[in-house]
Amino acid sequence: MAPDDIIEALGPYTFDRNEYTTALRELLRQLQDEHRAEQTRLARLSEELGNRAGLWAKWRGRHRAIDE
């Protein structure tokens, strides 16, 4: 049996249009929430890495002066 035949054997499916639309909108909302959370997490990580790089540069500058 070909894959297309198997898929056709599973159906037909019918959905209430309002329930289907509601489910898709909820999925979209969840994906948008996850995207915003990930963007926030990445922004915080970037800021933290920038702060650490700044601290490292200061520390290196101080120790370089001692080494010289």
Could you walk me through the main structural features you see in this protein, from its secondary elements to its overall organization?
This protein has 68 residues and is mainly α. It has two helices and no strands. The protein has helices at residues 3-10, 17-67. The model has no long low-confidence stretch (mean pLDDT 83).
Secondary structure topology:
Layout lengths: L2 H8 L6 H51 L1
What is the structure about, briefly put?
By secondary structure, this protein is mostly helical. Helix content is 87%, strand content 0%.
Low-confidence stretches: none
SSE pattern: HH
Number of strands: 0
| Strand fraction | under 5%
Question: Which features would summarize this protein structure in a list?
Answer:
68 residues; 0% strand; mainly alpha
